[in-house]
Predict the structure.
Amino acid sequence: MVDLVGGGGSAVAGSRRRPLKYVQVPVELPKHHRVGGRHGTDVEGVERNSACDHCDARMEFEHTRRIDSMVSINEAIHEYMGRGWSIIPIRAGDKRPLVRWEEFQHRHPSEAEARGWLRQWAEAGIGVVTGAISGLVVVDVDAGHGGNESLEQLEREHGPMPTTVKCGTGGGGRHFYFAHPGGVVRNKIGLAPGVDIRADGGYVVAPPSLHASGLRYVWVEGRTPESSAIAPLPDWILREAVEETTRRGHPIAYWRRLVCEGVPVGERNNTIASLAGHLLRHGVDAAVVMELLLCWNRTRCRPPLADEEVAAVVTSISRLHARDEEAHRQLR
């Protein structure tokens, strides 16, 4: 697999892995200069040298931090690709992919591609493409939008979440990783307030990526992919994911407010995907959906996404909708 540093073990699924070794670059902190003595004091010279030393130390520390970050990302790439997960590079401190990622819903990146990403974007994070390609469905709990309270309510209704792989997002949220059950499991924005399902046609940011808060995504102790099995997707979540969304969908006032007010950075991609799905489920032609959302993005998103990015999102949702419709026809 991707071997940026020495000590890399095998990343073949099911094989015995040797842990990767971190490279530590020693940093020599600036020496303190004594001021005074029998020959007098050169205060300006001492201050100038001290400032230079501190500057050099900061540069060396930053260099060390960057290398440690690259080694950590490299280790994660080995791990995730070895597990058969499809990965993509993510902007540091952001959730946006650095590549056109839709194709990685259908194929895994090669070793050369992953190596190239790490060389090109040394501080990039890692996204894991959910759905059948990686065998994953992730329940995304956003603490900032009432997700913790919603999850408590869902657990009162359906029982506790099974013990499974789990990570903290850096913003107080949580990702619960479940095994994909096969077939088509679509994304669902708003399973409950602050609780979404990331499945076919989606992705999540994974450890050790940097969150916008300045903290990193981390695996919860005892719930890492190495220490905990990935549990089957609970039946009640599967039912919510595959059923028609009209029963618990957003009220019409929600959609009216959304199209009028728009959304800021951090919500644009998900909102465009949600709007596309809403329109498609109500019988709007895919080409009409594309034009409507291109125009909506230009006038309501703050700031607008590139037309190409909007088109890619809408195309992906349209394909997923078509697959979902076909799956429903086969079930009838």
